């Protein structure tokens, strides 16, 4: 057997092997994907599906974007890893262009979203200690947050499934309701280092805060000298119709946390962007990652940043997102109790009388669409931004029929 051959063949056999030998920390739909191209994925039985999850927005630019593949292939043949002990020739463009895209002085390259969130937390705490002289810094977070899975991050999750049994927890976090800027103002004390929020809460069900919230959070944090950290891991890179979700209100946080789509769906790439007065607290040895900013990641991510700079994906997400939301609106009251979102991103609450969101996802799968439930009754749609208008219409049509299927 060569190292690349798969020991099992049928989808059922592969799923059984995965069940037996991969820990059960996910509950995937019963599909084994073999190929991806643009908005489409194909399973081992040759069935084709419209990918409406896009790996939780990591595949915003579509599967196998030709330019990203070209850059990745080229880089694979040249140089893939040096560690940060040495400079490599893909780093300068990556950090310069990502800093320019975020309109910040500099970036910290990491790999996963959770690592970037951890980085932002460490930077906020270090800044509080070193610059503001706070002995026990606190970070204000929002109820319903999802920032990843590390021990510190689940310490301030209010999702019992994510949290229970993983204590003891990291102290230093204060939770306020999402979307209520005055609650943040009331929670700020002399020990507050930062406010960290998702500008739109993805995992919570694509919760969009009231208009003006981000602006007010910026004002409140600026007035009290507290850092504003925006976790754009899921909302960033054109998902909402702007490069970043904070752009919708023209707000500039102190730290922008990025991940997922920055790696073009090819490699894990994350980063935190900030100005030198904040990120300058990091000095040699205080933080790092063997793989962070590696040549392959840097080459692919630079290509992603260049594609973002064209504005094409933001425009697609804006106009096709309007089309998607206009189509979805017709479902309200008809098996659907609420729809939220911005751009090509939607959280759709399924009427419990009809079934769960997973029931809908399974019906959609039978109709050639892959989507994912979150929190039992919410179906999340986040197709690759290369989706066409016809495909958006087809998606809405199939969702309408899937809901009808459940009605029986
Ligand atoms: C807003 C947000 N932050 C952080 C993360 C964690 O990213 P990762 O799974 O790459 O660690 C996620 C993942 O869904 C996320 O949605």
TrEMBL record:
Pfam families: Aminotran_3. GO terms for molecular function: identical protein binding; ornithine aminotransferase activity; pyridoxal phosphate binding. GO terms for biological process: L-proline biosynthetic process. Its EC number is 2.6.1.13. Keywords: Amino-acid biosynthesis, Aminotransferase, Proline biosynthesis, Pyridoxal phosphate, Transferase. Its cofactor is pyridoxal 5'-phosphate. Pathway: Amino-acid biosynthesis; L-proline biosynthesis; L-glutamate 5-semialdehyde from L-ornithine: step 1/1. Belongs to the class-III pyridoxal-phosphate-dependent aminotransferase family. NCBIfam families: Orn_aminotrans (TIGR01885). This is ornithine aminotransferase. It comes from Serinibacter salmoneus.
């Amino acid at each position: 057997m060569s190292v690349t051959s798969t020991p099992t063949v049928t989808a059922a056999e592969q799923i059984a092997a995965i069940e037996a030998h991969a820990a059960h920390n996910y509950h995937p739909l019963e599909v084994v994907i073999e190929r991806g191209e643009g908005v489409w994925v194909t399973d081992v039985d040759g069935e084709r599906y419209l990918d409406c999850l896009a790996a939780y927005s990591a595949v915003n630019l579509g599967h196998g974007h030709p330019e990203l593949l070209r850059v990745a292939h080229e880089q694979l043949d040249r140089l893939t890893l040096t560690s940060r002990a040495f400079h490599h020739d893909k780093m300068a463009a990556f950090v310069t262009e990502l800093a320019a895209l975020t309109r910040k002085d500099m970036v910290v390259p990491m790999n996963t979203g959770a690592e970037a969130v951890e980085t932002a937390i460490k930077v906020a705490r270090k800044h509080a200690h070193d610059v503001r002289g706070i002995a026990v810094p606190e970070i204000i977070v929002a109820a319903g947050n999802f920032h990843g899975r590390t021990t510190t991050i689940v310490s301030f999750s209010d999702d019992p499934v994510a949290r229970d049994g993983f204590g003891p927890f990291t102290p230093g976090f204060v939770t306020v309701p999402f979307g209520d800027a005055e609650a943040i103002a009331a929670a700020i004390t002399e020990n507050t280092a930062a406010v960290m929020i998702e500008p739109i809460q993805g995992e919570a069900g694509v919760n969009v805060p009231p208009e003006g919230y981000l602006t007010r959070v910026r004002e409140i944090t600026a007035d009290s000298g507290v850092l504003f950290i925006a976790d754009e891991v899921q909302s960033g890179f054109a998902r909402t119709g702007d490069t970043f979700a904070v752009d919708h209100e023209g707000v500039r946080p102190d730290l922008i946390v990025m991940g997922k789509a920055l790696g073009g769906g090819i490699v894990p790439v994350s980063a935190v962007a900030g100005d030198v007065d904040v990120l300058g607290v990091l000095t040699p040895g205080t933080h790092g990652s063997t793989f962070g900013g590696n040549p392959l990641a840097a080459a692919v991510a630079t290509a992603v940043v260049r594609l973002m700079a064209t504005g094409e994906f933001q425009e697609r997400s804006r106009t096709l997102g309007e089309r998607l939301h206009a189509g979805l609106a017709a479902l309200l009251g008809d098996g659907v109790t609420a729809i939220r979102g911005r751009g090509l991103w939607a959280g759709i609450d399924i009427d419990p009388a009809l079934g769960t969101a997973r029931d809908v996802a399974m019906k959609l799968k039978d109709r050639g669409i892959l989507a994912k439930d979150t929190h039992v009754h919410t179906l999340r749609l986040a197709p690759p931004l290369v989706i066409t208008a016809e495909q958006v219409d087809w998606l809405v049509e199939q969702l309408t029929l899937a809901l009808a299927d459940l009605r029986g």
